[in-house]
Automatic annotation (TrEMBL):
Keyword entries, A-Z: NAD
Domain TIR: 37-163
Pfam families in alphabetical order: TIR
UniProt keyword Cell membrane, yes or no: no
Protein name per UniProt: TIR domain-containing protein
Amino acid sequence: MSYIRSRVPRSVTVSRYVPKPANREVIKPKPKAVLTPPYDVFINHRGVDTKRSIASLLYDRLEEKNIRSFLDSKTMQPGDKLYEKINAAIQECKVGIAIFSPRYCESCFCLHELATLVEGKKKIIPIFYDIRPSELLLKEVNCGPIFPPEEIERFKMALQEAKYTVGLTFDSKTGDFSDLVNRTETIVAKILQENKERA
């Protein structure tokens, strides 16, 4: 009688391919850019005449009333680009306060700001500080390489339009600074309210 040996199958090791987890790059959300609200008011002034007096007083009062205002000495920070910052502030503002003073017309920067306000059809409140409108004359002014000669005509046109706009007159020797600040703030608030109602 013959026996048939049954073959016992050898154990077979089956290797499983386990994929390695992919290196997933964690994408962190980018911080949202902080958008600063636009300026309501741009204060155009000759610093040597008014920075330490009416310009600063007006800025402080408007800020107290939550009227966002641009005054170069109070608003600009180290590293800011002069023209970009000023031009952007003028473009977005609703009201321009132009403080005309004895040495105003000697500054090409003041005249450039005024021309930009006029060209942007901004509401301008003139303050004739120690000067009469008839005395605002653009004489021989040397703007150097920054402003080409054709800019002078642009300045003259802006000055002509602004000085024939009804404004406030003030004598720093006899006038009441508090009264001037109050009157100007009232006018600005009224204009901003009218703009808000029309929007």
